[in-house]
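B., you asked whether I could sanity-check this one before it goes into the benchmark set. Here's the sequence:
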Amino acid sequence: MSDYNQLVFDALPPKGSSREKAISELGANEAPELLHLASTERGKSKLAAQRALAKIDYEPAAAYWKKLLKSPQKCEKILNHTFSNTVSEVLADRLLAFLQTFLEKKPGSKISWEEHETLLAFLGMMPGKASEKMCEVYELAAEHIQKISSYTCDSEVLKLTYRDTSIFHISDTLDGVTLEQAFPMILVGSVLMNGDSRLQARACKLYEQYGGAWLSPVFASALLTKPASDVFEAFSPYYKDPVAQRFILNALGTVKFDTKQNRHTFMFGWGHMLRDDTYFSLTPLLFEDLDVRWIELLAADPEEKKPSGLIKTSYYVGKVTGEFDDVLGDLLPLHNEICCQKVQSYFLKRAILDDGIGATYVGILYRIGYEDVESILMKKWSQKENATSIWNVSSDLQSFTHWPAQRRAMLFEQVGQLVQEKKLKLSYWKPDTAEELKNELLKYQ
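And here's what the prediction gave me:
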């Protein structure tokens, strides 16, 4: 052991969280020491050493990663948040071998629980990896994705997952997404996480060769690297195509206007918040703020039916959490009053047409400064009997109005009168509670 090695080890606290923290802060200069610690430490200190080592492109660690990846389900929380070429090459070797065996199955074959979990672990580790062999994984997936997507889980897998047998579930991030959809969305996440030119070039190649969902990572790459006006000119024609529109929305759905920075940023989240400590998030900025012509394009034709499905609102790449208008609302540049005023009429019409509780629209209208939301709130509260409580009414008045306190309290009293007259059914509306909440509204500024 060299003198430097010994100095590094001697400087570490003897145990506990302080040792774990010190190990996690070691960097490329201490790669040999981290490899040693990854092999010798226990518990949280071992995990800290493994995660720190994984972030370093350290070729002598390849044998260690190869051994660790014999149990891929145990590796996801260690290897999912790294760009290391060394890790990428070893992971790609294992994934290619797995997929090649997987592809020996006949179309429509059932897969075992072990195969299911192994595949999900491998997919969970793919984001950010950009080595040549990892690019070959995308090539293989693109070539055979229809066959792979035909596989179904057997009955035992279904009992354990409580999910549809035709869908793979890659943690929270790609919940409900088929494999055919998953690989392009993982490439979107990889581009956002890493921005490596090899990934961007591979996305372009795959779209040229296979089309379809591979447009999403090409579009995301452009937003990261090119002037906003050039991106709009190049990609807005795709939006007008009914098939390609969804793939444009997939990428726009990962964009959010950040009010703290007054900039458009991607929202990249990956992993599972509860399972195995695999979740992390990143917020890379767009090359330039989104061209406002995107807002105008999306806010056209409020009367027509809007798409939903494989688009998202903020936090998960590919996550099916939102509708079209949620995505548009997240894109609004709130510092641009002219743009916000232009879309105000769109959201007012959408609120009238909405057959739900209207929470999306009252929230967006509040953010763009619209004040006359009384009718929208009343619709929200009356949409479903007893689905709204007295506390919901009070909270909505505080959260979604720009009014003075007296006006909030006045509408609260009017709602109470409607409840008394049995013209509106709201739960837990009692005189004492109503008086208490009204007084709180009068104090709220």
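One thing to flag: Residues 155-173, 312-322 have pLDDT under 50 and may be disordered. Otherwise nothing jumped out at me.
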